[in-house]
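Q: What structure does this chain adopt?
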Amino acid sequence: MYEPHDILKQYWGYDGFRPLQEDIIQSILDGNDTLALLPTGGGKSICFQVPALAQEGLCIVISPLIALMKDQVYNLKKREISAEAIFSGMGKRQIDRILTNAALGKIKLLYLSPERLQSELFQERLKQMKVNFLAIDEAHCISQWGYDFRPAYLKIAEAREWMGNVPVLALTASATERVKQDIQDKLLFKANRHIYQKSFQRANLSYSIFEEENKMTKLLQVLKNVKGTGIVYVRSRKRTKAIAELLRKNRIKADFYHGGLDGATRSRKQDKWIKDKIRVMVCTNAFGMGIDKPDVRVVVHMDLPESLEAYYQEAGRGGRDEKKAYAVLLYNEADCIQLRKQLTNSFPEVADIKKTYQAIANFYQVAVGAGENQDFPLKIGEICKTYSIKPLTFFNSLKILSENHYLITNDSTFVPSRLIVRLDREELYKFEIANKKLEPYIKAILRTYGGRVFDEYVDIREAALAANYKVPTKYIVHALRLLHQQQVIDYVPQAEQPKIIFTRPRVDQSNLQLDTELMEFRKKVRTDNVEAVIAYTQNKYHCRSLELVRYYGELADERCGVCDLCLARKKLAVEADLLDKMVFEIKDLLNESPTEVKTLMGKLEHHPRPEVIKVLRWMRESHQLDVNEERMVFLM
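A:
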């Protein structure tokens, strides 16, 4: 075993751990089941990467996002740490090679999706591996109370038995008290469990909410006042491009990003933003996960998020360097109406769900009783057009079918082409002599990617090879396919299209059994999430930061002093205790019925008159109360 501090210094160059990291690491090394809640940017990955290196064997990491797995494996390999990920789009030979290396002890961290953990092939190969512990990233996905429930996570506990009941480390950035308990229950935590939670308060992050009809004007004002890198979140892919163009017209370097762009384009845009070649990224929530940019100064939400958990994580991408940053939410009454409407649309009728299932099975020509574990390219547009299904109905029906374990979809991400040379150097040389037409292509591979192509799969770009060799890209692709056919190389062309997978044999539409109680339960959870967002947005009095941390069950009573509401209170120049007392009294007096201004002032005469006027004016400006034409004061 190696000391965690030595590992941290050797591989990451840090002299010390962040708060709670060392405690979490030691808990795992002591064999305890551990739940760690560290806010966005709190260094969760270190908590399982260091103990993985400190012990014999390998750590299996469960993650729901391919992009996140790829990003972490890439960064670990840069530090010369042996890590691999298995995800859809990979060739069988490559998967087999990774599993063999894991069994031989050549890999320290193996990343998998929760669905992959259930495959019979993996379960069989797992018996040959020495697993030191199981790490579960985004652990809130296991809870049906959570905002991002994934049914496949419910099966993870079974894997503990196959691994010899190794310790479990569950990590998440945010979870309510109910979700925290659910995570422990669902993962079958043992009695020797430890829970570590960093405060959800971010002292350097100023939360502000503005009710605006013209959001674009306010956005330009925010970006003008706050210098530095920014993120602008919207719910519509189309609007990402439109807003980015408007920002550029106003001389702000901006670009747009969403899940519908091809992988190469997404990578290029993300790289430009990270390197400060563009200042503002206008994006959907597809952007941000796994991106480590500490100097984001402002995060703006142009639309209401679906949950406070999502908002907290996205807003929390600002100020990871612990310097002052701003989280700004722009909304109007129409947004609240739209959010509730989207909630209603998220739960289609049972008949629509059955129609969608039937359409999918017919489109892919899957017979009743067949199709288990078969996957197909997901072609939403074609299916909806063929069977007259609204895309939104299709998408939401698919989610419910997944929660009922009939189908699953993988997340779409760019997986570049890869290859490995299957012959040794001497055999390859003999092949080159016997196949002169293919010799130049082999030399181009070796010159471009070096000797590592004999030892591991390397990511390749056919276009780059074609440019180096000065031939059309199609010639390179043809040559690679020929070399693959002749078993000189294993060539896996790039994959980017999401897939749909039948997790059980197809049933007839009439025999489709949907758990309606589960559907109603999920609808209630989603409704609670939406109403919490609206309540948080419409709050005009309580500190924004306090409202967020209390949502997570954290006991706190000290205002942040930097959110828009705290700053407005400061401008009043009224002592905090006196202000709270007066607001409580005023609301209590107006609770029963509106009161004439003069009468109200009379009932508050035990307070200094100048302070009463200040407080009443402030309450009116913050939309807590109003005055009608008859000079009657009433609560809003």
